[in-house]
Protein: Z-ring formation inhibitor MciZ
Amino acid sequence: MKTYVSEKQLRMVGKGWEIKAALRSWSNKDLTLQEYLMKRANAGRR
Structure:
């Protein structure tokens, strides 16, 4: 599975079961998608 992250989007490419498993593991964290993207965008600017 491949994951592409930019400032405003998250793109996941792979088998359906791989994407479901990744989303399920990410949902255990108390972080929204918007917060995650903002955090990744700010980390890239350093």
Remarks:
- The mean pLDDT is 84.
- The radius of gyration is 11 Å.
- The longest helix spans residues 16-27.
